[in-house]
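From the shared-data thread, chain only:
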Amino acid sequence: MKSKVNKLTESVSDIDRVSRAVSLSIKTHRKQQKLSLDELSRRAGVSKGMLVEIEKGSANPSIAILCKVAAALGLSVAEIVNISDDPPAYRIDPAAMPVLWQGEKGGTARLLAGTRGPDMIELWRWEMHPGESFASAGHPQRTWELLHVEQGELTLTIAEQSLQVPQGSAAVARTAAPHGYANRTSQLLVFTMTVAEMHSH
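Structure, as tokens:
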């Protein structure tokens, strides 16, 4: 059941659009870097079978898998889903903001904007219905998340620590360790999140 929760889903057109963008992007960057599927699989810690399915456009990878493949290619998730560009300033329209997680009760995580990486910054907007949760195995060492709760109350868990973040409050978290977000209330939870992953020293 859990595998269904983390999929790239929304409307069929959104699934198709994101799958096509991810498929083409990963294949193109892998070939540019002269990496075999076996080598990318080893670097990313993702099975070769999954990579084949992704490149064919027939798999909807989870956020965790996208993060691993992006990191192995030295890219940001935004670059892989094609919402990143090079000019000093550019606009991203709502239709180009992919939903990369959907909860079992209709919650969503939408990637609003992101920089080109390996040093990447992403802006997300999450909506979680009562009882929904999301777990991450953790990011690279130098990763920070800044969260601001617009509505409801977020339960943020990192390793052994659990933090309640009520409406109007913000939180700063180092998210190399396993972590998760949950809505343990009876109200809708809405929060924005910035993820900064720094690789250079």
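Helices lie at 2-5, 12-32, 37-44, 48-56, 63-73, 77-80.
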